[in-house]
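I had to read the description of the data format several times before I understood it. The format is easy to grasp once an entry is in front of the reader. For illustration, here is how one protein appears when written out as sequence plus structure tokens:
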Amino acid sequence: MTKMRLNTKIMATAALLSGVVLLASMSSSQQQQEEKEFKNIKVLPKHLTERQLDAVMNQWSRSLGVRCNFCHAQDKASDEKPEKLMARKMYEMTAKINSKYFDAKKDSLGMMMQKEVSCYSCHRGASHPEVKLPPPPPRGQGGPGGQGGRGPGGQGSAPNGNGQGNTPPPAQQTTPPPHTK
């Protein structure tokens, strides 16, 4: 019986020791992963964890509809791709816009807490946002004060066929409603 008790104690001690070693190695590897020093970080906070940096990179890649190799060379620390340099400039631009016009503050990591303007504001999932003017307003609506387009009946500020431009449309005669007493 004593031998059985001794074996049970040894097994329990070994299991407990294995658990402690396992937990210690897991927290050590997690700490090493979180303390990983990234190379060539220039505009983002330097003390981001790998998980935080991945979240930023994923947000940027989704906003532009691209993958990592759009901005990064095989050596991710390299600055050989002009897209990476442009991404830095764009990040600084959006941070300045948010800070100046939207009073956005930085969080404890140094990232903007409130983002009114982000990569997605312009890119909308495209690596090179389309620069396109909106269509002109429909004729007849004009600009401020009703000027700038043709009025009803094809008359207005545009040439009306009689050689005269910028002539206002003729006043429309309306019959006033009868007065009731």
